[in-house]
Design brief:
- This protein has 81 residues and is mostly helical.
- The protein has one domain.
- It has four helices and no strands.
- It is elongated.
């Protein structure tokens, strides 16, 4: 299944990433229950979905942190006086 994941990638468009064996085993176990032909296609799709969600997260989520709370935490850890 070559879904919307950068369509068909040539070797010059890819890089290798090392994954822990237990993660790849889980991917391989799930593969028959998906419409993907290879583990690489499935991992690419999952990573693109996760990255899209993270990148779409609004800045408001990050601004909700109280600066005093951060300062107090840094002081308690010894990073600030």
């Amino acid at each position: 299944m070559n879904t919307n994941t950068s369509d068909s990638l040539s070797d010059s468009d890819t890089r290798d990433v090392a994954l822990p064996a237990h993660v790849l085993d889980r991917v391989d176990d799930r593969l028959p229950r998906t419409n993907f032909d290879t583990s690489e296609e499935y991992v690419t799709y999952v990573l693109e979905e996760v990255l899209a969600r993270v990148e779409d997260a609004s800045d408001d989520e990050y601004e909700s942190v109280d600066e005093r709370e951060v300062e107090n935490r840094l002081k308690s850890l010894g990073y600030m006086e």
